[in-house]
Amino acid sequence: xxxxxxxxxxxxxxxxxxxxxxxxxxxxxxxxxxxxxxxxxxxxxxxxxxxxxxxxxxxxxxxxxxxxxxxxxxxxxxxxxxxxxxxxxxxxxxxxxxxxxxxxxxxx
Amino acid sequence: xxxxxxxxxxxxxxxxxxxxxxxxxxxxxxxxxxxxxxxxxxxxxxxxxxxxxxxxxxxxxxxxxxxxxxxxxxxxxxxxxxxxxxxxxxxxxxxxxxxxxxxxxxxxxxxxxxxxxxxxxxxxxxxxxxxxxxxxxxxxxxxxxxxxxxxxxxxxxxxxxxxxxxxxxxxxxxxxxxxxxxxxxxxxxxxxxxxxxxxxxxxxxxxxxxxxxxxxxxxxxxxxxxxxxxxxxxxxxxxxxxxxxxxxxxxxxxxxxxxxxxxxxxxxxxxxxxxxxxxxxxxxxxxxxxxxxxxxxxxxxxxxxxxxxxxxxxxxxxxxxxxxxxxxxxxxxxxxxxxxxxxxxxxxxxxxxxxxxxxxxxxxxxxxxxxxxxxxxxxxxxxxxxxxxxxxxx
Lengths: 108, 394
Prior knowledge:
The complex is a heterodimer of chains A (108) and B (394).
Chain A: E1 42-46, H1 56-60, E2 66-69, E3 72-76, H2 86-90, E4 98-102
Antiparallel strand pairs in A: 1-4, 2-3
Chain B: E1 4-8, H1 10-21, E2 25-27, H2 35-46, E3 53-55, H3 60-73, E4 77-81, H4 83-88, H5 90-98, E5 104-109, H6 123-127, E6 134-137, H7 141-156, E7 164-169, E8 178-182, H8 185-192, H9 219-248, E9 255-258, E10 265-270, H10 273-286, E11 291-296, E12 298-300, H11 304-311, E13 316-321, H12 332-341, E14 349-354, H13 364-380, E15 387-389
Parallel strand pairs in B: 2-3, 2-4, 4-5, 5-7, 6-7, 10-11, 10-13, 13-14, 14-15
Antiparallel strand pairs in B: 1-8, 6-12, 9-11
């Protein structure tokens, strides 16, 4: 089948140029589309010194905004984090190694 | 096996078509009066007669959701429902149409609550008339079977790719035994043909997203492109109707004209009441009255021009609706028809009657009264009341 244009290629497309049925052929386009821009108004701050690397935050994160390297929690991916706060609630370390703080959002 | 004459009711005729087509997925929730379709299909699956995946979810909303998922995955999919079941599917109907998924649904027409009633009228499918689905209405079990088989070919045509609902009147057709013809299994399979999905989700070589969020930048263009499917449908409906006629001897168009050649007055209606109306036309014709009937088959897309061309030849028309459109300028079929006639300088007088709500009978006597009123209108040139009710205590 002839590959239709991706939505990225179709930015100014007329209705005639769109693939049938709202289909988006631009697989992986979230790499160019930072959904973290509509975060809730709170963002998680990672406190490395308290972290026990249990990775509960990684398991519970409903997006994939916890960055893990070599089996260790290293950071939060703010490009995608929605600010739901589940990571803070689930963090078992005492004191907690993730804390939600207020933030002013700038919409792109 | 070859073509054979059998005695079936409307529901079992649909179940026979499903058996012959053997779709990939059937997802349905039982509701009166469509239940026996689902029961029969479940039995076929349990007995290994067909290898369709049969899903019986917790509601009609979920049944249509399963249909959408399965169709988006690339399957040939069907379902059946009625009344409140179709109403519960409402939001998913729009999604099926918006995603251009060629799902075929058998809808057994039944009234909507309140008050609760299980009998036939067109309130349910008329409520879905703007959902983006193609709507084909059937007079009897034979037509329901024939239309259902054609529906797959129409829905799946590359220029259409739009879901189709095939309807017939609850109990009057769904549960009444009728002598009809079931075509040869292989002939039906051959007629329907193999299904080739466009961008199925299961094609991992071409990963896609179906139904993503679409804001002010793309929504309008997508909705306009959706309309293309139903706008391309008339040509395909016509071709498929002719092809069906060529193969099986029963050809179909957008509507059936009954003794319209020299008719001066006409009734326009849909579905099972057409049988009674034809009897009345025959009786009046014997008395030399120039009366005719049009039975509309395809309500969406509405064949406005063709219908208007046919109706513009008569002097007065009564449009009989088996549903209401509260607060509107008449009921749905009337509104469409009157609008279709607007551009014709020599248009007939046109009136609207509501009949048969909640399964209320309509008899030859009522059709005689309608034709008498049309004659009166032709004679006096005056419409006294453009909107009325048949067989209502008032």
